[in-house]
Every structure is written in C-alpha cells, then in structure tokens.
Design a protein that fits this description.
98 residues, mainly alpha, 65% helix, flat
Length: 98
C-alpha cells in the first residue's frame, strides 16, 4: 500500500468515528439536536482527528509494516481514541517543582 492510499484509508476510519458519534443522536432528528452536532468546531476537530488517523497509517507504512486496507481503517478508527487518551493525561495546570 502506498502512502497516499494508506492516508486515505486511515482518514476513512477516523471519519467513521465521527459518523458513529452523530449516528447516536439519530432519534433527536425530530426534536432539537444537541448543540455540538450543529457546531463547526465539532466537525473541524473531527476532520483533524481523521487526518491524525491517516498520518498514523502513513507512519506505519513508512516504518516498513505491510498494511492492508482493513487494517488501515482499524488504525484510523483507533487514532481518535489514542489522541483522546493522550490529551486526557496532559496536566491542566502545571504543578510546582520542589
């Protein structure tokens, strides 16, 4: 798999997470949707996370791993969760050093 193809498959996986998140609120279509689903910021962050999934696949390919499309999609799906886990561990306020 080439870099461009891997990037695209990884992005597809990352976008799948956003589609699933929006799909959870399908029953709200008759009523008012949650505010974040109407926010451009939500979709911008989603696109950035999907691109992170694509970049992660590119990193695997460049490292010499043989990646098939299904695995590239799985890596893309996992990338937003990896990023969320990483960002959740960052300190909100720096602590004092003794």
């Amino acid at each position: 798999m080439g870099l461009a193809e891997g990037f695209l498959w990884g992005c597809v996986g990352g976008l799948g997470v956003i589609v699933l998140e929006a799909h959870r609120f399908r029953k709200f279509a008759e009523r008012r949707l949650p505010g974040f689903l109407q926010s451009r910021f939500f979709y911008l962050i989603g696109v950035i996370m999907a691109m992170f999934g694509g970049l992660l696949v590119v990193a695997y390919v460049r490292s010499g791993f043989e990646i098939k499309p299904v695995l590239a999609i799985q890596i893309g799906v996992s990338a937003p969760f990896l990023m969320e886990s990483f960002l959740g561990r960052l300190p909100i306020q720096p602590g004092k050093v003794n």
